Every structure is written in structure tokens, then in C-alpha cells.
Amino acid sequence: MRIGLLTEGGYPYVGGDAGLWCDRLVRGLAQHEFDVYALSRGRQQEAAGRSPLPPQVGRVRTAPLWKAEDDGVAHGRRARRRFTECYGELVEALSGGPGAASGSAAGPGAAPQTDRFGNALYGLAELARDEGGLVGALRSDTALRTLERACRAPGAPRTAREARVADLLTVTAHLERALRPLSLDWYGDDGLGAADLCHATAGGTAALPGLLARHLCGVPLLVTEYGVQLRSHYLALGPDTAAPAVRALLAAFHGLLATEVYRRATFLTPGNAHARRWQERCGADRARIRTVHPGMDASCFAEAGESPDRADPYTLGWVGRVEPAKDLVSLLHAFAEVRREEPKARLRIVGTPAGPEGEAYLGHCRVLAAQLFPDEAEGVHAVGDNPVSFEEIGGPEVPTLPDAYAGAAVVVLSSVVEGFPNTLVEAMFSGRVTVSTDVGAVVEVIGGTGLVVPPRNPRALAEACVALLRDPERRERLGAAARARALELFTVEQNIAAFNGIYLEIVSRCPVRRIALDETGDPLPFAAPAETHVPVHWTGTTARGRTREASGRASGDPVRATSGAAWGAASEGAL
Fold this sequence. Notes:
This protein is of the alpha/beta class. Helices cover about 45% and strands about 15% of the residues.
């Protein structure tokens, strides 16, 4: 089976988003062939280079989203008229109609708006295929004037009508960047058209090439979301970042794009129930959703998980990236109450700051810890010691990540915003009981193996920590249950097995039918035997004398996809 793996700002680049799980997926499914289609986000990412690729990756094709290279295409009068019609339909879907300006893509009134958006998007894709690209057209004055007409049209929401010229320029530039995949040469018989399925590792722009391959070539689409792209766009478009008109129009675009992706994907694989709820809210069919938890390597935590007695019985541990969303301030205030109940308790904060904002937040937390816990000493001649320590992995106290969990009796998560809590899974692999705030997918991850409290509630957090510090038998029992749950649900092996099953289900339900031609150009009936979809390596001889190998695909140029009706007609004509 040949899979077209679609990424944005991640695999195969070093340090990209979702790079680790993509690499594990590709390496774990050595029986399949992968072609990687990567959208890069910046010059630094490309300069950092790529990760080593396994042999099952046939090729890597990249396209930059951070720069626009003029394609040099000069459209004629008919093509310009066609572009104006399609682009006009698309921006009218953003600026007019119920729910468009607010970005809502769900609800009873959203279906006509979404259909209009989808038809316009596919019209632009067909134009790009026929004429050779749309980069210049999307950056042209025609695009700007078309957007302005849509915003000034009768019935447009007030927010859109109040858009200034600067706002329209900003929106036009953003749409041009988001729609750059329309102009790529990835959709022919030598690209995504030759794949058995497309697997997008995120929604939004990353899934757009798969959406176009489905429309133009009939290739089924699988979309995996471990973080909801639509939610990220909504959070990024805060009131301090852009004018109201810009926020409304861009929210509408991303909402309608997400809805179209969710509607057309063969299957959606969210990483947790939180992402699943977003997809259902945007119109995804529940029958086509398969929750696949992220897979993590449990082997490095085996020693800690099998040795719960290594933990200091009075130590609380926190591990993660230091940033305001982690709410370490509440954790420090909660620990102050813990110290009043358990004077021997200690708190180890292990992590590195996330950017300049994280550096400033870490400094603030250090100052607060010094104020709440002045250095304590057992006597007048002893050196004082602060019960709160700030450490980094790789230092003398915490040489490795497993050591950060092994030294804690209870692992705490105090976040106010969280997606999939990787640190909780690592703590569970280590056999440590957890106290967490009820955010993101926390409850889904820990099940009944830990304690959960409301966010921004230091007293509740402190009471839960004290209860576990005073009950070692309960800690050991919950820690063992947590480790068993993590090994069952969150390992790399279960993740790979789940995706392999979904791949096979997709190609069995939605096989890509192609017409094979012989040397004279006539259709060749029965050229694709059933073994072409068997996920094993095999070798044989085809009717044309070519050798088939590597999961049963014929060598040579791929053949063009066609609909079932055309396939039947071609076979009948050949017979």
C-alpha cells in the first residue's frame, strides 16, 4: 500500500511538530510505502535539515508556506473571469450568510454556506490544474477588489462592512498563504494521484492537499488531529492581534475549511475526546471518527515503574515546559498549604522555559517561591534549605527524564489549559500517582487512577496532595493501576496497530480504481489483481511482463484514477 503522508511544519524536518510520532508511525509500518509531502513554515526549519528516513519512505516533496514565489503564470481573459467567479464565491461564503462572519461551521444554517465554500475551493483547484497555478492571481488587485465587493455587498454582516483597506490587505495576504497548496504540482499521476490513501497529520492547511487529491484523483483521505488546528487559529486571533473584521473573516475561513475537511475525510482520528468534540461540533459524522491515542515510548520508564520504592515519600514532582498556562503560581500557593499540613514535604519543579515569555514566568515563580518559603535551617549553625527546587533535565540532580518522575511520590499537573497531557502519561508509565486539574484530556487519560481537582483552586490541589502523601498504600495501588492503564492505551505499539487497521479498512472500503493501458493505449482489463492491496511484499509477473514488487505495485509510471462508472465502461469496451 502506498500512503501519501501530509505534514505542515513537522516531519521530516528536525524538531518539527508531530515529528516524533510520524517517525514512529512510518518506521513501525515497514510493510507499506510512504511518500512524504511536507509544507514548511520557515527558513530556519528548512536550514535545520531533515531527520534520517527509513527505507520505506520513497520520496519527500516539500513546499514552503513562508514565502511566495511567483509562478510566472499569465492568465488569459477566460481564466481571469473564471478566477473572479470562483474566488468571489469563496469570499462571499466568508463575508455573507448566516454564521459565516463568526466562523461558525456547524448548525442547521451552515450547510449551504459550507457547500458554497467547497464548490468555490474546488473550482479554484481545477483552475490551478488547468492553467498552471494561482499564486499571482491570489495576490492580485483583482483578488483584493473581489474581497472588497463581497464585504460591501448588501446583506454582509456589519463587521465585514466596516473592514478598512488595511484589513482587506491583511485578509487577502492570509488567504493567499493558506491557499498556496492549490498551486502545487502534487496532484498528478506522479504524485498524490498514485497513492492508495492520503494521511494528513493535522487539519487545516495540512489537510488541504489531501482534500484536493480526493476531489481531483479520488484518493481517500485520513485526517489525524492530536491538537485541534481550528481551536489554535481561534486562540491566535485574539482581540489584541488584529482588527475585528480581520478576525471575523479569518475565523470564517478556517471554520469553513475545517468543516469541509471533516465532511470529506473518509476517517478522522482525533487523539482524545476533546479533539473529537471539536470535530463533531464542526459537522463530522460520528460514524467516521476513530479515537487513536498518541503512542509514547514506555521502555525508558520501565525501571522507575518497576521500582516505586525509589521515590521520596514526601516529595511532590512537577515536570513540563514552564509557561503561564501551566499555572505554577497556583501550585506554589497550594504547596504552601501542603507544608502547613506536612512540614517534611518538598516540591521539585523540573522543566525548561518556553521562549522569552516562559523565561519571565520562571523568574516570577522563583521570586514567589523565595517569598513563600524563606530558606529554612534546622539550627542556628546549619545552612538554610528551600523546600522548593527548580531544576532542569540533564543537571546533576535530574540527569534523565525518567529520573524526574522516579524521585517523586506524587506527580502534579496544575495547568489551566492543556491538550493531551504527555507528562501525565510519562508519570503513569513510571508508576506514579497523579494529582491533576480538570483541563483538556486529563480525565480521559488518567481514568480512575489519580485525583482530579478544578483548575485555579490551590486549596483543592493542596488537599488532594496531602491525602496522597499521608496514604502510602493508596499511592502504591493507584500508581500500579496508572501504569497498567498507560501500557494498555498509550504505547507506540497500540498506536501503530490502530493506524495499520484503519489503513486496511480505508483501502477495502474506498479502493482507488485506475485504468491501466497496454502498449497500444487501450484499456487493460483485470490489470489490478486483488493482491495489490494485500499488505505484504510479494513478487510476480503481470500481463504486460513487468515485475510487481514492494506491496504489489507495478513498476513504471502510475495510472490515472477514475470513477467506478468509467472503470466499468473501460472494462466493457476492452472485452
